[in-house]
Amino acid sequence: MTAGITIAQDAVGHLVEELSGRILRISFTTGCGGSGYRLASADEPYEGDHMLVIDGVTIALDEMANRNLDGAVVKWDEAEGGYFLDHPSAVTAVWCG
Q1: Architecture of domain 6-86
Q2: For the chain, what are the domain ranges?
Q3: What is the mean pLDDT of the chain?
């Protein structure tokens, strides 16, 4: 089973342009103060990644993201100039300095 992730329409155009043939990889990550999901561009998926293509955007999900992000939405934040994952189980990672 592959997670049912969607991409908000305003994020699709940004992703297609910025990725320019690369993939969006969503992976589980941990830091000293918490855990969450990282969105990053990649040239190719890692071994074991689950693949999706949504509106022309290729997405690779690691095993943890694939199991836990059903219903998540990738959104674009104009004010921050970046992407974020809108999902109740997507806890923001805390990074150590």
Answers
A1: Sandwich (2.60)
A2: 6-86
A3: 84
